[in-house]
Design brief:
alpha/beta, Elongation Factor Tu (Ef-tu), domain 3
């Protein structure tokens, strides 16, 4: 497995600089081979190409960790049921992927690289199909939008409820969301911003940046009464029910969503664990969820909330990037750590936690934005 992981990483370096062209070539080859597959994908393919590359990078990065590799791909298989992917589609997908890799690998592409990707894709497809076959849930849930509240210029808090079966998930997980009325066949992942509730209501925090095909529709167009589609829950940024360690959470922007869900989960039964939440933004407007966090903290003395702003000198609180503020507190060794926000923020926070000698197995994180 170590040699396989090495070959995958070495060969990916050959094509990484042209990853966008590789993705375009992959889909062109796929649709020429089987034109019927085009109906499974959105008209606008830019987001889909990005998702393909994220999945490849995530899968190849986890090959050296068999448990993580298996968990990720089984979840991905369950998630892909929303596209109505059938077992025979995996053969066409694998052939198109290998053709794209060989094309962009050029003269440096070796037989060893080809064999490594063939073996890796076979393992990926097997686990994805096993995950899909073992899932008794529907391919997706239809959910009615109950509430839509704008928070500032670019953020909306949306609540919805599945119409039939409740959606089974754990606090800290995320789902793919489609707005079929506004952006059919186009899906984007969002963290669920609340712990599971008896009334089955789900909350999402959505921020639109630029055009933002799905996020733009959710923030600017979706209204109460509209229907959304929600795919199977994914993600492992969840609480260990057996842990008694104190907790530190770091959030920026809409990365607050899974952190809020984790705090809600802890509020239902925690009596012994101190929980520290650091929430950051450029200005106080970015701290859209701070009032609710403060209300939870007022009810639970074990919870402390530290807000900070990096570009708001008039803010009456900590100044600086949230990772820098995190570094001024601590020590964090011996804590369970959860981090959610932009890729840049997450990387900075992970460096701080490493400097505090927090072991990797005690850290869970999600990135919001380009990976």
């Amino acid at each position: 497995m170590d040699n396989l992981a090495r070959l995958l990483k070495e060969s990916w370096v050959l094509v990484e600089d042209r990853r966008d062209q590789l993705a375009s070539h992959f889909y062109a080859r796929l649709f020429v081979t089987d034109p019927t597959l085009r109906t499974l994908f959105p008209v606008q393919m830019s987001v889909q190409r990005e998702r393909l590359l994220e999945a490849i990078v995530a899968a190849t990065g986890s090959v050296g960790d068999p448990e993580r590799f298996d968990e990720f791909l089984r979840s991905l298989g369950r998630d892909h049921r929303k596209f109505h992917v059938r077992p025979e589609h995996y053969t066409a997908l694998g052939a198109a992927l290998l053709h794209a890799l060989r094309t962009f690998g050029g003269d440096q592409w070796t037989v060893e690289y080809d064999q490594a990707w063939t073996e890796a894709y076979a393992a990926m497809a097997e686990r994805m199909q096993a995950g899909a076959a073992a899932d008794d849930n529907p391919p997706y849930w239809n959910a009615e939008v109950l509430g839509h509240e704008r928070r500032g210029t670019d953020i909306a808090v949306i609540t919805c409820r599945p119409l039939l079966d409740p959606l089974p998930y754990r606090a800290g997980q995320y789902v793919s969301v489609e707005a079929p009325r506004h952006r059919p066949r186009l899906w984007r992942t969002y963290s669920i911003a609340n712990a599971p509730r008896e009334d089955n209501v789900l909350e999402f925090h959505v921020r639109v940046l630029g055009a933002g095909w799905v996020s733009g529709a959710l923030v600017r167009q979706v209204q109460p009464g509209d229907l959304l589609r929600l795919a199977a829950p994914m993600g492992s940024m969840t609480l260990d029910p057996t842990s008694t360690r104190d907790v530190v959470c770091v959030a920026a922007g809409v990365g607050l969503a899974p952190i809020k869900a984790l705090v809600e989960e802890l509020s239902r039964g925690n009596r012994t664990r101190w929980v520290h939440v650091f929430v950051g933004g450029r200005t106080r407007e970015d701290l859209y969820g701070l009032p609710e966090l403060n209300r939870i903290a007022a009810r639970h003395p074990w919870l402390s909330v530290v807000p900070c702003c990096s570009d708001d000198l008039g803010f009456d609180g900590e100044q600086g990037d949230v990772s820098d503020v995190l570094a001024r507190y601590g020590p964090w060794k011996g804590h369970d750590c959860f981090v959610a926000g932009s890729t840049t923020m997450v990387r900075s926070a992970l460096r701080v936690l490493a400097e505090h000698e927090v072991p990797a197995e005690s850290i869970r994180y999600d990135t919001f934005g380009t990976v």
